[in-house]
Amino acid sequence: VLWSEHFDRALGDVFALQDEVSAAIAAAIEPEIGRAEAERVRLKPPEDLSAWECYHRAMWHCYRFTAAHTEQAHALLQRALALEAGFARAHAGLSFTHYSRAFLDAVPAPDAQIALALEHGQQSVDLDPRDAMGHWTLGRAQFLAREHDQALQCVGQSLRLNPNFAQGHYALGFIRAHAGVPAQA
Q1: Long-range contacts: 127-130, Cβ < 8 Å, 24+?
Q2: Higher pLDDT, 174 or 11
Q3: Which residues contact 18 (CB under 8 A, 6 or more apart)?
Q4: How many CB atoms lie within 10 A of CB 13?
Q5: What's the angle, vertex CA 50, arms to CA 120 and CA 133, rounded to 5?
Q6: Long-range Cβ contacts of 120-128 (<8 Å, 24+ apart)
Q7: CA-to-CA distance for 22 and 3, rounded, in angstroms?
Q8: Can you give the pTM of this predicted structure?
């Protein structure tokens, strides 16, 4: 069971209830899909991975937030793009790895990594403007580039596209805290 809930409403509110139930189901299922995909591909031999599977294994590494895991994620995402050049999520993932390299201070030239994070984030948005992750990674890169207004707009767009996107909510608060609006953060 991924989701269950009880709703008591008057019959006149059936459309509002339908929207509320849909949002609750999406909020419960969306993170579970990512976790299930990551677990499934973690068990496959690396030589058998498709672009989609490379992406999910890479994201598992990304969320470990270490330099070593970031490098493993980066290699998997490059492989995903070699298999499928127009894969927007792989570009978003590469933006994430370049962001992490700079944010973790894991490279001697963080400005070059920030530029690459911006480039891949923009490529992701250009390839799929309806994907919240692309806007999120571009916004995070813009934050590192000290473009706080643009960062807030991008991350805000990620949440307009997916109001249940937990990483977007976290990034919005984080960027607001650093942009001098702690009350909104």
Answers
A1: 127/86, 127/87, 127/88, 127/91, 128/88, 128/89, 130/161
A2: 174
A3: none
A4: 12
A5: 35
A6: 120/91, 120/92, 120/94, 120/95, 121/91, 121/92, 121/95, 121/154, 123/88, 123/91, 124/88, 124/89, 124/91, 124/92, 124/95, 125/88, 125/154, 127/86, 127/87, 127/88, 127/91, 128/88, 128/89
A7: 11
A8: 0.78
Residue given tokens 């984030």 in the structure block:
121
Mean pLDDT calculated for residue range 57-68: 93
Tokens of 122: 């923009």
Tell me which residue has tokens 């250009």.
126
Distance between CA 135 and CA 157 in Å, rounded? 7
Give 103-160 pLDDT, tens digit per residue.
999 899 999 999 999 999 999 999 999 999 999 999 999 999 999 999 999 999 999 9
184 is written with which tokens?
A: 């909104």
Position 37 confidence tier, pLDDT thresholds 50, 70, 90: low
pLDDT at residue 21 in the model: 74
Residues 137 and 18: their CA atoms lie apart, in Å, by 31
Residue-level pLDDT at 3: 62
Q: Which two tokens stand for residue 101?
A: 């390299």
DSSP state of 46: G
